[in-house]
Amino acid sequence: MEKERGAKGISRRRTMRPEQVLVVGFLALILAGTALLSLPAASADGKNAGFFDSLFTSTSAVCVTGLVARDSGTGWSRLGQIVLLCLIQTGGLGFMVFATLIMVALGRRITLRNKIVMREAMSENSWANLSRLMLGYGLMVALVELIGAAVLCIRFVPQYGWGEGIFLSVFHAVSAFCNAGFDLFGQFSSVTGYANDPIVLLTLSALIILGGLGFSVIFECFRRRFHWKEFSLHTRIVLLATGLLLLFGAVFFCLAEWTNDATMGSLSPASKVMNGFFQSVTLRTAGFNSIDQAGLHDASKLMSVIFMFIGASPASTGGGVKTTTISVLFLIVYSVVRGQQQVNLMGRRLPADLMRRALTILFISLAILLAGTMALTILEGGGVPFLDILYECASALGTAGVTSVGTPNLRLASRAVLIPMMFFGRIGPLTLALALANKQKNDQNLLKYPEEKIMIG
Question: What is the Cβ-side half-sphere exposure of residue 1, based on CA atoms within 13 angstroms?
Answer without folding.
Answer: 0
